[in-house]
Design a protein that fits this description.
Blueprint: H1 3-26, H2 28-45, H3 54-78, H4 92-96, H5 100-109, H6 112-162
Helix pairs in contact: 1-6, 2-3, 2-6, 3-6
């Protein structure tokens, strides 16, 4: 495969990886809204006088802990990773680390081989980012799902206590 074809393949791969990152990030808002809503409803319904039995305490622990874990995983996943290859002509931080004229001169000196190496590094870093985001979001979803059943039971207990 010639270098031009390799660069085309890498550019397509990088584009797909960036789309995967966007896909992962589109799941963050609903997860955040659901988790915070469940916590808010929980907090709003805690009765001022409640007979805290061991069952209720366990339900609260199995409700609140996974919801907080879900939120923390979401928060970690939304912070951008800005570590990239130094001197990259593609990565925004690699570009702004240079002066404008220096960047222009580097671009004039850019070769197909240098571009290939830069693209390959970008693909690798974006694959790491994509993998990490999907893993964090998957664990956040699992944590949220774990909290649903105990949340329903404790909300029911709180409603019963208000009668």
């Amino acid at each position: 495969m010639d270098i031009k074809r390799k660069n085309d393949v890498l550019e397509q791969t990088l584009s797909r990886l960036i789309n995967f990152i966007s896909s992962a990030e589109s799941k963050i808002a609903p997860l955040f809204i659901i988790s915070t809503s469940m916590l808010a409803i929980f907090m709003a319904l805690v009765p001022s006088t409640f007979d805290w039995k061991i069952k209720s305490i366990i339900l609260v622990i199995f409700t609140v802990t996974p919801l907080i874990i879900s939120l923390l995983l979401i928060l970690v996943s939304i912070f951008p990773r800005t570590k990239g290859p130094k001197g990259s002509m593609i990565y925004f931080k690699g570009i702004i680390d240079q002066e404008s004229d220096e960047y222009l001169n580097e671009m004039k000196e850019e070769t197909e081989e240098k571009h290939f190496e830069d693209l390959a590094r970008q693909c690798y870093i974006n694959a790491e980012i994509t993998s990490r985001k999907f893993k964090l979001i998957r664990y956040s979803m699992i944590s949220l799902f774990i909290s649903v059943i105990p949340w329903l039971f404790i909300i029911y207990e709180f409603y019963k206590a208000k009668d």
